[in-house]
Amino acid sequence: MKKITPAKFIISSPKLSLCPDFGDIPEFALLGRSNVGKSSFINRLANNGKLAKTSNKPGKTRLINFFDFNGQFIIADMPGYGFANVKKEMKDQWEKDLAHYLEKRESLTSCIQFIDSRHPIQANDYQMREWLAYKNLPVITIATKVDCLTRGKIAQTIAQFKKELDCEVLPFSAKDSYYTENVIKHLLSYE
Ligand SMILES: Nc1nc2c(ncn2[C@@H]2O[C@H](COP(=O)(O)OP(=O)(O)O)[C@@H](O)[C@H]2O)c(=O)[nH]1
Ligand SMILES: [Mg+2]
């Protein structure tokens, strides 16, 4: 396996115009409901539990957080969708900034959508996908928290997600490094 550590945090940007230029390095934007495990994904990949802040409280990340994985790829951790207890005007502004980055960011290689394997795919997950398809944006799909399922249930859930979304679905767990290598291999194949 190619070594991708050390990974480092670069900057938090509120919008596209303040996002740094990383040149030709592939960039992946993490999309998913708050609490789905985006920050934990970064930490697992980096082998550094303290790199990205994880939280039990939804809607904490309000900025695009950039992480450089040893110059091999860039991860942009996006504000989660599906957050409760947020004023509508604020939510609309985030969505505008988020959409702008996704539509116009030239170095964006692919989005990665995270879906919680413990639950059925949610309405806002489908909405996000429809929007990505409408904008012709590529997406990699990752099912998170599979450590919470039995082996049999993992296979069943992945098959179900594949069928419903009609795409490849990669299983992942931040608590079990078994799944990490395949995901890294997948990301490095975009180099
Ligand atoms: N069991 C389990 N819990 C996870 C996993 N990934 C994240 N979590 C937990 O889910 C919560 C939200 O994770 P976080 O990474 O902050 O989600 P984010 O809002 O999408 O960035 C935290 O309490 C994490 O410890 C996982 O793979 N397995
Ligand atoms: Mg987060």
Give a structural overview.
It is a single chain. With 191 residues, the protein is an alpha/beta fold. The chain has one domain (7-188): Rossmann fold (3-Layer(aba) Sandwich). It is built from 5 helices and 7 strands, in the order ββαββαβαβαβα. The protein has helices spanning 38-46, 88-104, 123-134, 151-165, 180-188, and strands at residues 7-13, 27-32, 64-69, 73-77, 108-116, 139-144, 169-171. The protein has a 7-stranded mixed beta sheet with strand order 1-3-4-2-5-6-7, sandwiched between helices. Helix 3 links the parallel strand 5 and strand 6. The longest helix is centred in the middle third of the chain and has 17 residues, at 88-104. 35% of the residues are buried. The model has no long low-confidence stretch (mean pLDDT 90). It binds guanosine-5'-diphosphate and magnesium ion. Magnesium ion binds next to helix 1. The site of guanosine-5'-diphosphate has 19 residues, from helix 1.
The ordered H/E elements are EEHEEHEHEHEH
Number of domains: 1
Mean pLDDT: 90
Which structural category do the helix and sheet elements fall into?
Answer: alpha/beta
Ranges where pLDDT stays below 50 over 5 or more residues in a row are: none
What's the main sheet like? 7 strands, mixed
What's the total helix number?
5
Distance between the termini: 15 Å
CATH architecture: 3-Layer(aba) Sandwich
What structural keywords apply?
single chain; alpha/beta; Rossmann fold; 5 helices; 22% strand; binds guanosine-5'-diphosphate; binds magnesium ion
